[in-house]
């Protein structure tokens, strides 16, 4: 399973990269705004800064919602660095843009996926990644893991190479459940990744080992 971090915070991206387990970064306009990044020049520079930290896969989202605007923006983002994956919303012009970028050899991530039909359409249009939003489905009481299962089944039925990028991950349980189902990638906050480390028996076991070692050493 690939691990992406879902943030535009450079310190958190560095911390995850330093762990040695990071495969990429996803951002969105809300995450950029949270870091106070606005204006074309600053946004572009911030993407370059992120690309300088990680090895590959930096999803950068277009703001335009019309085909021509998405193509113009996507090309500009893709020209920043080979690591950029252009993030396109699941709307009608977005599907056209996915096909355009697929034909042009520019990688895409189709975002705001909430149904298996949307994921099928994005795969058909040649998206490299589809991003179903788990946490937001949970928020409205919908079956988020069922959606990942359905997309996995459909992609396997037809051999689509589009990767399932489980997004809106909120905790480590989300990550483990998505791994069990077979999502290709997960993207979540640093806290969800670090949450995988935690088990009380690990903490108490280590404390006991260290205490026994100190006792044996006569400390
Ligand atoms: O990758 C999508 C993600 O940023 C949405 O997460 O927590 O805002 O639902 P959240």
Give the structure's gist in a few sentences.
The chain is α/β, with parallel strands linked by helices and 219 residues long. The protein has helices spanning 10-19, 29-34, 40-53, 67-80, 92-104, 116-124, 134-139, 144-158, 172-181, 190-194, 200-216, and strands at 2-6, 24-26, 58-61, 84-89, 108-113, 129-132, 163-166, 185-188. The chain has eleven helices and eight strands.
Structure report:
This protein is an alpha/beta fold and 219 residues long. The protein has one domain (2-190): Aldolase class I (TIM Barrel), CATH 3.20.20.70. The protein is 54% helix and 16% strand. The chain is built from eleven helices and eight strands. It has helices spanning 10-19, 29-34, 40-53, 67-80, 92-104, 116-124, 134-139, 144-158, 172-181, 190-194, 200-216, and strands at residues 2-6, 24-26, 58-61, 84-89, 108-113, 129-132, 163-166, 185-188. The protein has an eight-stranded parallel beta barrel with strand order 1-2-3-4-5-6-7-8, surrounded by seven helices. Helix 4 (67-80) packs across helix 5 (92-104). The radius of gyration is 19 Å and the shape is globular. The model has no long low-confidence stretch (mean pLDDT 97). The structure holds SN-glycerol-3-phosphate. SN-glycerol-3-phosphate is lined by residues 6, 26, 28, 131, 133, 135-136, 167-168, 187.
């Amino acid at each position: 399973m690939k691990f992406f971090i879902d943030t535009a915070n450079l310190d958190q991206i560095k911390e995850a990269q330093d762990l040695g387990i990071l495969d990429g970064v996803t951002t969105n306009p809300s995450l950029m705004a949270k870091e106070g990044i606005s204006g074309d020049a600053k946004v572009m520079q911030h993407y370059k800064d992120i690309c300088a930290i990680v090895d590959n896969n930096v999803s950068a989202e277009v703001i335009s919602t019309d085909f021509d605007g998405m193509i113009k923006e996507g090309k500009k983002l893709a020209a920043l660095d080979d690591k950029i994956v252009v993030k396109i919303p699941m709307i009608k012009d977005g599907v056209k843009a996915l096909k355009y970028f697929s034909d042009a050899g520019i990688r895409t991530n189709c975002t705001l996926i909430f149904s298996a039909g949307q994921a099928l359409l994005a795969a058909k249009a040649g998206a490299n990644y589809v991003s179903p939003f788990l946490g937001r489905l949970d928020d409205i009481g919908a079956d988020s893991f069922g959606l990942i299962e359905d997309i996995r089944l459909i992609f396997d039925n037809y051999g689509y190479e589009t990767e399932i990028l489980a997004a809106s991950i909120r905790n480590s349980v989300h990550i483990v459940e998505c791994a069990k189902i077979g999502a290709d990638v997960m993207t979540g906050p640093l806290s969800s990744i670090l949450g995988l480390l935690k088990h009380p028996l690990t903490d108490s076991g280590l404390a006991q080992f260290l205490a026994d070692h100190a006792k044996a050493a006569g400390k």
